[in-house]
Amino acid sequence: MSYIAEYIWVDGTKPTAKLRSKAKVVADGDEPGIWGFDGSSTNQAPGNASDVVLSPVLVIPDPVRGGDNKLVMTETLLPDMTPHPSNTRAGCLAASEKYKKLDTWFGLEQEYTFFEGIKPLGWPDNGFPAPQGGYYCGVGADEIFGRPIVNDHLQACIDAGLHIAGINAEVMPGQWEFQIGPIGTPRVADELWLARWLLYRIAEDYKGDSEISVSVRLDPKPVRGDWNGAGCHTNFSTNQMRESYEPNIAAAEALGKKHDLHIANYGAGIEGRLTGAHETARFDQFSYGVSNRGASVRIPWQVERDRKGYIEDRRPNANCDPYTVTRLIVETVGAAATARK
Ligand code: ADP
Ligand code: MN
Ligand code: MN
Ligand code: MN
Question: Where are the beta strands (DSSP E) in 28-81?
């Protein structure tokens, strides 16, 4: 007997990489090993030297096919087994190992929007739904669009053994969120990419009101105007931050000193989302504050009360690369923490 291993990788599309996957039949008892693909079809290689290597980094049960089948998260390598230029995981792993002593944990809040054809799921064919206000964590068919997909995805993530922390309906109708963590990186980013893949895949099987299949978009500003964008708030803590309050402030200060570097790497189209309205701080200004959802970085109120915990970087876009976002946070906060000692 054999099982099916679905190999998943991040491609080289710019400015926002896409997920790709293909299936391999593996003999029972064998592990999913090194594999490859045609990089000239994924913006990852020229046609005359097209081989790119897929190297497994995380193997989980496949909750879509079920049985003994597997999902295989991979990183891309060149034929000489060094990281492919589009591989952002390798740098993330190196940063995580450099600052291993800080044992940084991440909790990623992935926001996303369901689309049916060219409009968000549940939106009228002409015009707009009622203004924002009642949709966030709402209930009822007039406010909630796509819940069966969301519940299916949540259960699939649990069945696959991912560290999914929860789900909620978001501020704009048709918009939702799931959270992965808290765990270290690059594991948290591996899991976020796998959870994104599961979401895209599960939504394929659903049809919206007009019998058009539902798609998922990580567009940071899917509808212009007075509608919330979609982010990937990145909560994090070092062991020092989990033990006392001052390192939480120091981490926020350190992020402020590298604001432009982080903004430039937090996802394409970030200027369109971080406008200063809709629970964001402007992309060209840095701020932090307790309970402040209009700041770049929020210190949760419990963290101030408990005098320890974690902070939330609210800047990353929904379409960010979590390997890059978590690498930058590890490096910025790690360098500052090391310099303070
Ligand atoms: P919000 O109130 O911003 O919507 P959420 O509940 O959606 O917050 O997300 C908070 C995230 O923070 C969760 O994914 C959770 O796992 C994560 N988290 C909690 N404690 C820590 C910690 N000590 N370090 C890093 N992340 C944490
Ligand atoms: Mn949240
Ligand atoms: Mn949210
Ligand atoms: Mn948040």
Answer: 35-38, 51-61, 70-77
The pLDDT value given to residue 261: 98
- Low-confidence stretches of the chain (pLDDT < 50) are none
Structure tokens at 291: 């309970």
Pairwise CA distance, residues 138 & 140, whole Å: 7
- What confidence tens digit (pLDDT) does each residue in 214-230 have? 999 999 999 999 999 99
Predicted local distance difference test score (pLDDT) of residue 304? 97
**Distance from C-alpha of 257 to C-alpha of 328, rounded to nearest angstrom:** 13
Residue nearest to atom 12 of ligand 1 (CA): 107
Residues lining ligand 1, CB < 6 A? 105-107, 109, 165, 179, 181-182, 233, 235-237, 242, 309-310, 312
Q: Do β-strands 70-77 and 2-10 pair in parallel, antiparallel, or remain unpaired?
A: parallel
CB-proximal residues (5 Å) to ion ligand 3: 177
Q: How many whole angstroms from 185 Cα to the centroid of ligand 1? A: 15
What is the residue with the minimal CA distance to atom 13 of ligand 1?
Answer: 107
The alpha carbons of the chain give a radius of gyration, in whole angstroms, of 20
Which residue ranges form the domains of the chain, and what is each CATH number?
2-86 (3.10.20.70), 95-340 (3.30.590.10)
- Work out the mean pLDDT of the chain and round it to a whole number: 96
**pLDDT for the residue numbered 57:** 98
Ligand 4 centre distance from Cα of residue 246 (Å): 21
d(CA 141, CA 201): 24
Q: Quick check: 88 and 11 in contact, CB under 8 A?
A: no
Backbone angles phi, psi at 305, to 5 degrees: -65, -45
CB contact at 8 A, 57 and 71: no
- Count of other CB atoms within 10 angstroms of residue 279: 15
Cα(111) to centroid(ligand 3), Å: 6
Is this structure's pTM higher than 0.85?
yes
Pocket test for ligand 1, best of 176, 179, 183, 236 (most atoms within 8 A of CB): 179
